[in-house]
Amino acid sequence: MIDQVDTRENYKRNRFAVAPMIDWTDRHCRTFHRQFTRHALLYTEMVVADAAIHGNRERILGFAEAEHPVALQLGGSDPIKLAEAARIGEAMGYQEINLNVGCPSDRVQSGTFGACLMKTPYIVASSVEAMKQAVAIPVTVKCRIGVDDQDPETALDQLASGVFDAGADALWVHARKAWLKGLSPKENRDIPPLDYARVYRLKQQNPSQFIGINGGIQTLDEALDHLNHVDGVMLGRAIYNNPMLLLDVDRSIYGSESAAPSIDAIIEHMCDYADAHIARGGRLSHIARHLVGLFHGAAGARRWRQILSTEANQTDATSAVIRLAYAAIETVSTEEAA
Asked: Residue 29 catalytic?
């Protein structure tokens, strides 16, 4: 097994990540996002440990080599099952295993995992220890600052202390509490107030550990400001709703001097990718739904969204729909220029 110090040291390159989002960050979404950035860390949707162990692995866990660097997020509370799921993820080629200790949905709570694990930090620590013993790749945790009536000062310290003692390579913190009763998952992303300062204090208390921050971050300028206080920044909905934000990640976050890809090239790649998916029995809608936000705020964006949201849902739709939608964008741009 790789030395624990080595995995923690290697993890420091992950300064920017696209958050794991249930029903959103599937393999098609990740393929799309990877066209914009070579370096950002991408995450799967949360996969329950039992599904990873007993389900159709190619359908549930499959991904393309071109998606790297990509991490697998697991949900669960049984250290033995999580260790087995982690082994499976490592064998399939994932570069990181992340444990979900932040999702507040009723479905996740009923399985006694996700954000409710903030109440049992010893289970989280045991799970991390079991996964670290099972795999040689980094094992990380994504959590909240607390749940319900917990004091975030105490709750987050206890969780962080336990997982780092167990060997965790990183702790990504969504800088809000989660309310397990009374708020929906959507409301839990917006209503509890953000407390970035709490995450900053955690980093100050753990200078040698990787601490990443998540929650409410909308721009790369905001991300760069957070990087003055923590090691990594994770954006979720902001990226999904406006993928163009990823175009400047490699330059502004990683210092890359390589030219950003052109939108023409990204569209062409996704058209080829869509047709290959359709040839294997898939549907254009599986892919097109992730492209809807591409021209967020741009002239012609409404027409782009309309075409993708309607015509891509036809059973016989092909990449011609994406090309048609892109032509609408180009037509508006030409008319405005004239």
From this structure: no
Single out the residue of 101, 72, 104 nearest to residue 89, CA to CA. 72
Render the burial of 296-321: b for 16+ CB within 10 Å, e for the rest: eeeebbebbbebbeebbeeeebebeb
Q: Where are the domains of the chain?
A: 4-252, 263-337
> Is the pLDDT score of 1 beyond 60?
no
pTM above 0.85, yes or no: yes
DSSP code of 98? E
What are the binding residues for FMN?
73, 142, 174, 214-216, 236-237
Q: Is CATH 3.20.20.70 the right assignment for the domain spanning 4-252?
A: yes
pLDDT for res 337 = 44
Under CATH, what is the fold of the domain 263-337? Four Helix Bundle (Hemerythrin (Met), subunit A) (1.20.120)
User: Which residues contribute to the annotated binding site?
Assistant: 73, 142, 174, 214-216, 236-237
| pLDDT of amino acid 109 | 59
Catalytic residue among 103, 116, 143, 271: 103
Residues paired with 139 in a beta bridge: 97
Phi, psi of 214 (to 5 degrees): -150, 155
